[in-house]
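Throughout our pipeline, every protein is held as a single compact record rather than as scattered files. The record that follows is passed on verbatim for readers who wish to inspect the format.
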Amino acid sequence: MKQKTSLQSYSTGSKILTVFFACLSVIWMFPIFEVLINSFKANSFVNLEPFALPNAESFVGFDNYIKGMTFGNYPFFKAAFYSLFITAASVALILLFCSMSAWYIARVNSLISKIFYYLCLFSMIVPFQMVMFTLTFTADQLNLNTPYTIPIVYLGFGAGLAIFMFLGFVKGLPMEIEEAAAIDGCGPLRTYFSVVLPMLKPTMISVGILELMWVWNDYLLPYLVLDRTQYMTIPILVQYLKGSYGTVDLGATMAVIMMSILPIIIVYMFCQKHIIKGVAAGAVKG
């Protein structure tokens, strides 16, 4: 009888939580829905009726999307290329170097490796505002203020979380496999790329998706580091979608915002299960 009562209470509690999180998800999705519907409305209706659905009078089809690609003095596709390159290069650097660093920290139990690990953890709690002015100056001095060099800056900022997640997973990998590879004549690099790296796939996917969403949507770091007269990413371009006398075409702006968030939404929807698996694997094995 007690077991039946506990099952009933568990079922009731799960239903309440389901309804609560369903309502919460609707609240979180509402801003995206607003951007979507306003991207199909004429600019005047976006100002006057921002929460109304498009109708026969306000609906403009894909005109806002076409205008968003040609609006302003900076080409949209150029900004999209820079965003794509910066994101791909930054994520690739973070995955490669941070996974190697985590493997080294886990296998070389020395004072230097421990200090390095704690410095990486410390970087996770330091607010970006504390270092942004020094960072801007350093990036200018080292010529890291271009889309082709800013991934090095992202590597420094993304290393803390990536190493933390990789280390939790690497600690659970069996040493016997690496010892067998060493007996077969594999050096450290060959052992990493042939043995360790394939086993890191779950965490690789998780870290990659998390860092991809961060770098793609980041506004402040490229805004501070890049020369905006030559280079713009999509988040920066949105700010400069202005016409004469500073007027803003909100319909075109909404379309550009929708085009910028849609790839990330699609990637996250297809890969969210890998994020959960990778985080859980690192947490359990760490």
In short: The chain has a mean pLDDT of 83.
